[in-house]
Amino acid sequence: MAKIAVSGKGGVGKTMFSSVAAYLLVEAGQTVYAIDADPNATLAMALGFPSELAEQVVPIVEMEELIQERTGARPGEYGGYFSLNPRVDDVPARFSVAHRGVHLMQMGSIRGAGAGCACPENTMLRALMTHLLLRERETVIMDMVAGLEHLGRGTASAVDIMFIIVEPGRRSLDVAQDIAALSTELGITNVWIVANKVRSERDRQFITEGLPGLQVAGWIPFSEDAIEADMNEAAAYDAAPTVVEKVRHVLVKANLLPS
Ligand SMILES: Nc1ncnc2c1ncn2[C@@H]1O[C@H](COP(=O)(O)OP(=O)(O)OP(=O)(O)O)[C@@H](O)[C@H]1O
Ligand SMILES: [Mg+2]
Looking at the whole model, is its pTM more than 0.90? Predict the structure, then answer.
């Protein structure tokens, strides 16, 4: 039972990694809740959800009745008095859509005052993050928004493991360092770099030298199969075996899978 967050610069492979990790954890007997925290939701496609199924996923922030029932306030209301600890234990079972053992939820975007607002929607999301984990053999994997603007105290407090995906590129390393520093500040002790789209020894060296003091959980090669999977709306888990093996190594390294 773990709460995993996947972060990094835009386009580095957060969604690809999250999708493959989700299926590997299902393979190992976990019940996996995959949370697409990006308002620009793409995790369903990366998981190869049939489009009819993907269309059924209602973003949590759009469940106005549920939010009102549980927090006692209407979405869009800021400040004021409402329950800061709404009941969410039944939310995953009732509102996720499952495919091949992965239960997918989408957050959607919080309107108005932004991610840090004291509003009922945000309270629901935070409660969901914090309470989702409470059962045995359940894993939550959260595909985060690019960058670090959404890495707030509320959500991060529940995170056990932070994977920061990087690619061979200066900006991605800069963003990774910022995320790692913030993660540590927020009290996340288990922070791992995952190098993706690696083409050569030179790429490896660039990443190692560019991230002093950070631990690398694994190296995922640049893969034509991963690109092909994306173009065919297929799951990388099915179409890119070399990538899958490397993601498996990462999960073993982070103690999420037995070796
Ligand atoms: N190892 C890889 N080799 C080649 N291409 C890859 C690899 N990993 C991911 N990609 C490709 O890179 C693109 C971005 O991947 P992905 O959507 O997973 O990144 P992301 O970090 O989630 O992006 P965003 O910030 O937009 O959410 C996709 O087209 C994907 O197929
Ligand atoms: Mg993504």
Answer: yes
